[in-house]
Write a structure and sequence with these properties.
Number of helices: 13
CATH superfamily of the largest domain: Type I PLP-dependent aspartate aminotransferase-like (Major domain)
Structural class: alpha/beta
CATH topology of the largest domain: Aspartate Aminotransferase, domain 2
Distance between the termini: 24 Å
Number of strands: 13
Helix content: 25-40%
Length: 369
């Protein structure tokens, strides 16, 4: 009999843990019939802001919206240049374009985080902001970015880092503003989509609240051209429950990461992820480096082991951005080389030691071929 497959992520397992509590919370929302910006949204915003160490969290419909509205609220205007790491999800670049900005891509360091030196070389007289993407569960070197780019607005893409810290400061609390995502697969995931803008700036938070709601705070009073991007009350009710267990879930991810490190530490041909100095990693993803990555990925799939690639093409190689991205002087060679080798192994709260041992065994045999 073939062993049971190991999923890349097991959302059903995570959701079963809160099923009864979530059902009761959703029923309460339905009974109150307050589906848009209801009391659960305000309560979640307050709780998540406190968790993130900021004064304001503004719930929106997605992580992409969160980053776009964060950039707009921070003053990005049409024609402004915004520097982002080239190795990020397309949503980071989309948000810049949707805010009216021009995308400028910088290289990464070997730990996959944005290279401040490359970002500094990308600066021009039109540079308005730089986005530190907290990738795979650990934070970008925000203080170094700030030092290399004085006077440039510091923004955080915190979609993969809920609960992470840098030098003790939480994800979302370093820049002028941050955007985060509550997509179901995130460390803090909803039962659908959602996101939030995070900031300590009162005026910026007010602008973000207006932008998410047709440019107005009150009905029929519209002072800005906004959009419809409100966090659903049902999703907020679920997120309030998930937030209570986030530290415990992240602790399970940390334990799983330590298990992988032990299982794979002596495996030739597997480069283990590194935690940057000053960072507390929350292991949204466990990303290794291997040669002949596509062959290894196929061998894992044949053995019933789920895996992913985050991300197979740097932003400037995507067809949608091929003619609308400026590359930092000196190129993005580190990111391009890394994109050929990265492989994300199964990682989720509740993954068992047996599942991880199977993943490690299959990977060990695959790289040895």
């Amino acid at each position: 009999m073939s062993p049971d497959p190991v999923p890349f992520v097991d959302l059903a397992l995570q959701h079963r843990r809160i099923a009864d509590e979530a059902a009761a919370a959703i029923r309460e929302v339905i009974d109150r019939a307050q589906y848009t910006l209801g009391p659960d949204v305000a309560d979640f915003e307050s709780e998540f802001a406190a968790f993130s160490g900021v004064a304001h969290a503004v719930g929106v419909a997605s992580g992409t919206d969160a980053l776009e509205l964060a950039l707009r609220a921070a003053g990005v205007q049409p024609g402004d240049e915004v520097i982002i790491p080239v190795n990020t999800f397309v949503a980071t670049a989309e948000a810049v374009v949707r805010a009216g900005g021009h995308v400028v891509v910088a290289d990464c360091t070997p730990d996959h985080l944005i290279d401040p030196g490359s970002a500094a070389r990308a600066r021009t007289t039109r540079t308005r902001a730089v986005v530190g993407v907290h990738l795979y569960g650990q934070m970008a070197p925000m203080e170094t970015l700030e030092a290399h780019l004085p006077g440039v607005t510091l923004v955080e893409d915190a979609a993969q880092s809920q609960g992470a810290t840098r030098h003790g400061r939480p994800s979302g609390s370093w820049g002028l503003v941050a955007g985060t995502s509550f997509y179901p697969g995130k460390n803090l995931g909803a039962f659908g989509d959602g996101g939030a803008v995070l900031t300590d700036d009162d005026a910026l938070a007010e602008t973000a609240r207006a932008l998410r709601n047709h440019g107005g705070i009150r009905k029929y009073e519209h002072r800005l051209i906004g959009t419809t991007s409100r966090l659903d009350t049902i999703q907020a009710a679920v997120l309030r429950i998930r937030l209570k267990g986030l530290d415990a879930d992240n602790a399970e991810r940390e334990l799983a990461a330590r298990r992988y490190a032990e299982l794979l530490r002596d495996v030739d041909g597997v480069d283990l992820p590194q935690v940057a100095a000053g960072n507390t990693h929350v292991w949204h993803l466990f990303v290794v480096g291997v040669d002949q990555r596509d062959r290894v990925q196929a061998a894992l799939a044949d053995a019933g082991v789920g895996c992913g690639i985050h991300y197979p093409l740097p932003i400037h190689r995507l067809p949608a951005f091929a003619d609308r991205v400026m590359v930092a002087p000196g190129g993005v060679t580190q990111a391009e080389a890394g994109a050929e080798r990265i492989l994300s192994l199964p990682m989720f709260p509740g993954i068992t030691p047996d599942q991880q041992e199977r993943v490690a065994d299959v990977l060990r045999r695959a790289v040895a071929r």
